């Protein structure tokens, strides 16, 4: 079996200490996940840049990775989130634009996006407005849970914050979004 299917992320990272080319297997395994998440937040053009920056930073800091954690995806989402923060102004403008047209970002194809525009749900505009109004740190936590499907512990690891902080930020974000949407829980709201 190839290394990409038999080794954990931690094993691949550790192997890359000796053979840097093994890190490419980690990229192959997770770049799609990171790209989809970033594209939903910033758009495809910025996502390409953020994915590159994410994996470059991860490669440079691979010796600092805690190999006791077999899954590196939360660690990678942490890098991506830090780079997204640099694009925060663009992200907020993006949500405000979506609030006007009623379509939330998605990494789907052009036909799917056209279909979404044609049949936009009433909840999308208020959701986009609510996302734009959140503090960036609260939005980061909410979207890592809702769009990246990370657990509270994985979010805490990704953002290097205590799990209690994850809970309080998520609660604050959910409350704001729930107030805008009525009683809809934003972490269960799917846009596709």
TrEMBL record:
What would be an example GO MF term here? sigma factor activity
Entry coiled-coil feature ranges: none
What InterPro entries does the record point to?
RNA_pol_sigma-70-like, RNA_pol_sigma-70_dom, RNA_pol_sigma70_r2, RNA_pol_sigma70_r4_t2, RNA_pol_sigma_r2, RNA_pol_sigma_r3/r4-like, WH-like_DNA-bd_sf
UniProt domain RNA polymerase sigma-70 region: residue ranges: 26-92
Q: What biological process terms from GO does the record include? A: DNA-templated transcription initiation
| Domain RNA polymerase sigma factor 70 region 4 type residues, every copy | 125-174
Keywords in UniProt for this one? Sigma factor, Transcription, Transcription regulation
Superkingdom field: Bacteria
**Per the record, a Pfam family?**
Sigma70_r4_2
Family according to the record: Belongs to the sigma-70 factor family. ECF subfamily.
The protein's name: RNA polymerase sigma-70 factor, ECF subfamily
């Amino acid at each position: 079996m190839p290394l990409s299917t038999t080794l954990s992320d931690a094993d691949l990272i550790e192997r890359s200490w000796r053979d840097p080319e093994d890190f490419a297997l980690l990229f192959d395994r997770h770049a799609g996940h990171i790209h989809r998440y970033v594209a939903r937040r910033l758009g495809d053009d910025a996502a390409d840049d953020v994915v590159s920056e994410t994996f470059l930073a991860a490669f440079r800091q691979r010796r600092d990775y805690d190999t006791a954690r077999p899954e590196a995806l939360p660690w990678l989402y942490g890098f991506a989130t830090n780079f997204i923060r640099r694009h925060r102004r663009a992200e907020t403008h993006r949500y405000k634009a979506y609030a006007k047209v009623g379509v939330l970002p998605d990494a789907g194809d052009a036909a799917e996006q056209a279909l979404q525009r044609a049949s936009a749900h009433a909840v999308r505009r208020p959701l986009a407005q609510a996302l734009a109004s959140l503090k960036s740190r609260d939005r980061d936590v909410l979207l890592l849970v809702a769009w990246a499907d990370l657990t509270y512990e994985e979010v805490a690891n990704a953002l290097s914050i205590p799990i209690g902080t994850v809970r309080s930020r998520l609660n604050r974000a959910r409350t704001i979004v729930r107030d805008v949407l009525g009683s809809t829980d934003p972490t269960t709201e799917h846009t596709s």
